[in-house]
Specification:
The protein is mainly α and 135 residues long. It has a domain at 34-123: Substrate Binding Domain Of Dnak, Chain:A, Domain 2 (Up-down Bundle), CATH 1.20.1270. The protein is built from four helices and no strands. It has helices at residues 11-30, 35-63, 66-90, 100-123. Helix 2 (35-63) packs parallel to helix 4 (100-123) and helix 3 (66-90) packs antiparallel against helix 4. The chain is elongated and about 50 Å long.
Length: 135
């Protein structure tokens, strides 16, 4: 049994293990960022997700009757209010901190991605599916 604090791995093996660990950590070290950069990246991700939402929303909008469009618009406005209030709630512990913008943006991007999926379901409905709007 090795003495406390002494490794039983041969010195060359220890060096290889350290080199391997450093290689694993290098990408994380190389991308170390400031909170400002993290906030910016989260904001950019939200913008990408929001653009995707606008794309699928427009595609669905173009397939709907005037009456269904009014319902979709009301639903979307209510959903945006929900998303914004939900993200304000779940990130309330970070208010005043430099991480707060990132928390809000990540929450909104996550919920927006879910909304995109919901709208895509409407776009990909089979004829006769009563859970889908066809007019």
């Amino acid at each position: 049994m090795a003495a406390l604090g002494r490794s039983t791995v041969p010195r060359a093996g220890r060096h290889a293990a350290v080199a391997f660990a450093v290689c694993l950590l290098l990408p994380a070290i190389a991308v170390a960022q400031t909170q400002m950069e993290l906030n910016r990246q989260a904001g950019e991700e939200l913008q990408r997700t929001d653009r995707r939402l606008n794309e699928v929303y427009s595609k669905l909008w173009s397939r709907l009757s005037t009456e269904s469009r009014a319902r979709l618009q009301a639903a979307e406005e209510a959903w945006i209010r929900f998303r914004d209030q939900e993200c304000a709630f779940v990130s309330s512990s970070t208010i005043g901190g430099s991480i707060h913008p990132m928390m809000i943006a990540q929450c909104k991007a996550r919920l927006t991605a879910l909304r995109v999926k919901d709208i895509e379901v409407q776009l990909d409905c089979a004829e006769g599916d009563l859970a889908c709007v066809h007019n």
